[in-house]
């Protein structure tokens, strides 16, 4: 009889590439994983693995079997989640993650509703940099996240999403740099001024490739809050989310650089994201339905 643990080991081997890495991920010994996979292959009655190379490689039958195994694992995880919700009622804690590029204020109305409806549910709000909020949902460290979103992100996890609003990027500079260099009117005007930009994002966004500004000094910050402070200090110009510099623009601490078609290729949205593999508790569902 095929067991859930065997399917988990098969999935871990596919994700990590080696028996040892799969064993480490599942906190088992390599021998235990190897034996379980051999037993799974015997129970299946057809070859799951091609053992001719250095590493185990799935056969065509194995690839098809893995696709169905992953669906079984998703269903099993949903069942566990549902069982817990039916047993415990509302979540004792709701973990909400948001990316620093997204103003969390849009969540506050929904959070107030949770406070009223489920007063015993603690709310944990956690800010993340470099799209790590999305990883937190994928890895089960957050129940729900507010984050920039592109459809390609689905390759990093089984997500459900809901549009909250467009994600607007602005090109800005401090007035003191305008006084020193003049207001940039064309792309080449920016080459004389240092560029402030985030480090490469946690799931693979590379702004260097998107913006293509060669031969220019860069100052890289690992979160948008630090980038904003560097901009206000006049350390360079930058491309930043509108959510985090509204007050600075209103006060005149930063001014817009308007160069036609400069960042038109960047089309993101802000989404609410949750895992499709877990059933949301009542409090998490309330926030989801709020939007």
Derived structural class? alpha/beta
Residue-averaged pLDDT, rounded? 85
| Uncertain regions spanning at least 5 consecutive residues | none
Radius of gyration: 24 Å
How far is the first residue's CA from the last residue's CA?
44 Å
Secondary structure tally, helices: 11
Report the major sheet: 5 strands, mixed
Beta-strand percent range: 15-25%
What percent of the residues sit in helical stretches (DSSP H or I)? 40-55%
Q: What string gives the helices and strands in order? A: HHHEEHEHEHEEEHEHEHEHEEH
Which descriptor suits the 3D outline? flat
What strand line-up does the widest sheet have?
4-3-5-12-6
Topology, number of strands: 12
Task: Give a written overview of the molecule.
The protein has 291 residues and is α/β, with parallel strands linked by helices. The chain is 41% helix and 21% strand. It contains 11 helices and 12 strands. Helix 8 links the parallel strand 8 and strand 9 (218-221). The longest helix has 29 residues, at 60-88.
């Amino acid at each position: 009889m095929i067991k859930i643990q065997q399917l988990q080991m098969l999935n871990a081997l596919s994700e990590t590439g080696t028996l040892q890495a799969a064993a480490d991920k599942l906190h088992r010994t390599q021998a235990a994983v190897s034996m379980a996979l051999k037993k799974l292959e015997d129970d299946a009655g057809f070859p799951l693995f091609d053992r001719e190379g250095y590493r185990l490689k799935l056969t065509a039958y194995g690839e098809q079997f893995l696709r169905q195994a992953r669906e079984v694992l998703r269903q099993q995880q949903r069942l566990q989640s549902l069982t817990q919700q039916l047993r415990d009622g509302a979540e004792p804690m709701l973990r909400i993650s948001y990316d620093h590029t997204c103003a969390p204020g849009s969540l506050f109305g929904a959070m107030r509703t949770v406070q009223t409806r489920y007063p015993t549910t603690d709310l944990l709000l956690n800010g993340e940099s470099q799209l790590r909020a999305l990883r937190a949902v994928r890895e089960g460290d957050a129940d729900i996240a507010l984050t920039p979103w592109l459809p390609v992100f689905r390759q990093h996890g089984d997500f459900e999403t809901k549009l909250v609003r467009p994600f607007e990027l602005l090109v800005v500079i401090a007035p003191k740099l305008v006084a020193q260099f003049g207001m940039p009117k064309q792309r080449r005007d920016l080459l004389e001024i240092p560029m402030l930009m985030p480090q490469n994002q946690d799931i693979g966004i590379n702004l260097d490739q998107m913006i293509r500004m060669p031969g220019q000094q860069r100052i890289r910050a690992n979160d948008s809050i630090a980038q904003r402070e560097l901009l206000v200090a006049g350390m360079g110009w930058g491309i930043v989310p509108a959510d985090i510099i509204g007050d600075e623009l209103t006060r005149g601490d930063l001014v817009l650089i308007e160069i036609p078609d400069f960042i038109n290729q960047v089309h993101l949205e802000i989404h609410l994201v949750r895992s499709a593999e877990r059933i949301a508790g009542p409090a998490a569902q309330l926030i989801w339905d709020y939007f």
